[in-house]
Amino acid sequence: MSKLLLYLRTDVFRKNLIYALITLIVLFLVVYFGLKIYTKHGDAQEVPVLKGLTISEAKQILDKAGLEYKIDSVYQMDAKPGLVIEQDPEASALVKGGRTIYLTIITQVAPEIALPDVIEKNLIEASAILKNHNLKIKDTIYINDIARDVVLGIQFGGQKINAGRMISKGSSITVVLGNGKGANEVEVPMLLNLTLSEAKFALQGLGLHIGAISGAITDSTTARVIAQSPDSTSRFISIGTPINLTLSND
């Protein structure tokens, strides 16, 4: 113990202690200033406002500010392509030089989606499903079917398409619906100005036939229909119903 106390009182110990303290101080300063340089302490800057700018304008601003950027894109109907709609970090946030700013822009090309299955669904339900898939109903077509306002088919570009077909998001489609009349009813044809033989041929093709014939007729081969009952305003009648005709040679 006495030897240790004697050593602590020597010049050699004091010199070693001073060297050790100096080494620790130098090491601390190197680490301290090194970290400041590495983290660019005091080099913070505000993120500029980029929302609402075109992507080319946003790039110019970020290049001047020394900031990096990455771009993602989304599609929105009725939105101008090329506009920045989101940025991360937000405007006015403090970041270091060289920080990456993430931008979301509107793309011009609509992504494709699969046509949902709306067959045999009513028009209200089908409209909601199509709207949720960002598809628009351009028109509706009614055909003879006992189920009224039930979807029987989908047309796109004048062609029938099936569920699962890939079409552009935001596309307008035509919905084919049942009219509730059933297959045993047909639309009343317009027979005015037809000859008797022409009218008979037209009715036979629809499953109808000529009923009572009246009018001032001098030549049945040239006489033309001037009136019919029921007329075309009746819209639909049952197959097999007779159509009464009024003919005239005048």
From TrEMBL:
Residues passing through the membrane, by range: 16-35
KW Membrane (keyword) present: yes
Species in which this protein is naturally found: Sphingobacterium tabacisoli
Residue intervals of the PASTA domain: 43-107, 182-249
A Pfam family per the record: PASTA
Keywords: Membrane, Transmembrane, Transmembrane helix
Signal sequence region: none
Cross-referenced InterPro entries: PASTA_dom
Full protein name: PASTA domain-containing protein
Superkingdom to which the source organism belongs: Bacteria
Keyword Chloroplast: no
